[in-house]
Design the sequence.
């Protein structure tokens, strides 16, 4: 059903003219959300370099999530062309705004424990939202989103208890 | 399709309940309560899945009398590895159940996937980027 959007009868149609499917929209948004979350990690790492050993593996996992979402969104939008990693190093599909931090950047608490807590909250909120929004998506998209939501819940756990 | 994935999850929970019995016999005192808690949680999930299979109009898969362990479990360290392995397998079947299910069943499977991923990370002290997705590791 969701593959119907990629009809072979409209080869000349530009991507802009085609309405994205619910799965494409969910994946594109998920890529942006993960890239923005990685930017929050970067802000915390800049403010608290002493947390690098603990946070870098989690930040790297979040970047892998953004990349996987971007690739899946791209594959759904144009199944004939393989998505290129080099064109979107952060995993955000081309044409999407990159996860540009606001001019001042995300606010980071001065206290390390509070900074970890704010990251844990961000992970937990995103994880919960992704789980709530699984309904109506294609099976493969839901499976990927649920896995990344689980990874986010694990991150929240490790940030609070690790 | 949903029935098949639900039965697969039930079989995995049967195996996990058996496996946590082995874990409980070998685990160190420091982590015994954690193992007990996980054992109880998996019994509850197993019972939920038995009901879910019946709701789908089928006979629930029965537990085996015994299960082959993936490796020898002579001590507490091996028991911790086994517990993590059990949770990894459950994460995989619940990820498949998310794919097969819809609505409330999909949500419940996603919650179970999350819980398995957190337990696996607790046992190991760290997580993986894509819990339950063997092809992404």
Sequence:
């Amino acid at each position: 059903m969701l593959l119907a959007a990629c009809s072979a009868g409209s080869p000349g149609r530009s991507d802009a003219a085609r309405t994205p499917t619910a799965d494409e929209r969910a994946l594109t948004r998920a890529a942006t959300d993960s890239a923005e979350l990685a930017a929050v990690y970067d802000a915390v790492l800049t403010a608290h370099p002493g947390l690098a050993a603990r946070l870098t593996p989690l930040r790297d996992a979040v970047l892998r999530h953004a990349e996987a979402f971007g690739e899946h969104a791209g594959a759904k939008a144009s199944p004939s062309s393989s998505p290129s990693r080099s064109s979107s190093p952060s995993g955000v599909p081309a044409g999407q705004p990159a996860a540009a931090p606001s001019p001042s950047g995300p606010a980071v608490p001065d206290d390390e424990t509070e900074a970890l807590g704010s990251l844990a909250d961000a992970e937990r909120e995103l994880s919960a939202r992704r789980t709530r929004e699984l309904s109506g998506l294609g099976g493969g998209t839901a499976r990927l989103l649920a896995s990344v939501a689980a990874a986010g819940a694990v991150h929240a756990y490790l940030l609070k208890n690790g | 399709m949903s029935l098949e994935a639900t039965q697969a999850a039930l079989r995995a929970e049967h195996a996990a309940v058996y496996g946590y019995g082995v874990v409980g016999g070998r685990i160190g005192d420091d982590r015994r309560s954690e193992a007990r808690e996980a054992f109880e949680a998996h019994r509850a999930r197993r019972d939920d899945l038995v009901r879910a299979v019946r709701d789908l109009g089928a006979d629930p898969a029965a537990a085996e009398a015994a299960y082959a362990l993936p490796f020898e479990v002579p001590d507490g360290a091996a028991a911790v590895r086994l517990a993590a392995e059990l949770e990894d397998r459950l994460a995989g079947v619940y990820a498949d159940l998310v794919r097969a299910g819809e609505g409330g069943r999909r949500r419940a499977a996603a919650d179970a996937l999350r819980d398995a991923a957190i337990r696996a990370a607790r046992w190991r002290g760290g997580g993986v980027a894509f819990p339950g997705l063997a092809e992404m590791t």
Remarks:
- The longest helix of chain B spans residues 2-26.
- The mean pLDDT of chain B is 96.
- The two ends of chain B are 25 Å apart (CA to CA).
